[in-house]
Write a structure and sequence with these properties.
The protein is α+β, with helices and mostly antiparallel strands and 136 residues long. It has helices at 2-17, 36-42, 57-72, 89-97, 124-135, and strands at 46-52, 78-84, 105-109, 115-119.
Length: 136
């Protein structure tokens, strides 16, 4: 009887979780109202926010990946913005809206405002997949 209950719970969990997270390991979450700075950027298309802070080794390690992605999307409707939460209250506010507690945080935004959030040093292919999904 215990095994049947465990299997039932696992089945419910797998059904409940399917559709939430893509097979690539990210999820677009809606219900976030973008700050004005971000909504202005979104008028041009997909937006990638790279949120950093001073004296952050992981931020420095991730910056070349962001730079490479930015080069790949040069001339497209994808806008990249780097925001340092130590340097302005506007950047701090954007970070708060997207729940930034650790840097670096990379946010991929769809036109509808839904966000896929990557914390720490990321896999470039996974973020690129999120960008491509956001552009659809």
């Amino acid at each position: 009887m215990q095994y049947v209950a465990i299997i039932a719970v696992l089945s419910l969990l797998s059904v409940g979780m399917s559709g939430c997270i893509s097979q690539s390991g990210y999820e677009f979450k809606g219900g976030i109202t973008p700050p004005k700075l971000v909504s202005d950027l979104m008028k041009n298309g997909t937006v990638i926010l790279f949120i950093t802070q001073n004296n952050c080794p992981a931020c420095e390690q991730t910056l070349p990946k962001i730079t490479d992605l930015q080069k790949q999307y040069n001339g497209t409707n994808v806008t990249f913005a780097t925001l340092n939460i130590d340097n302005s209250t506007t950047s701090q506010n954007v970070g708060q809206v997207y729940g930034v507690r650790t840097t670096p945080t990379t946010v991929v935004l769809r036109k509808d405002g839904a966000a896929a959030i990557f914390v720490g040093v990321f896999d470039e292919n996974t973020v690129k997949s999120a960008i491509e999904d956001a552009r659809k």
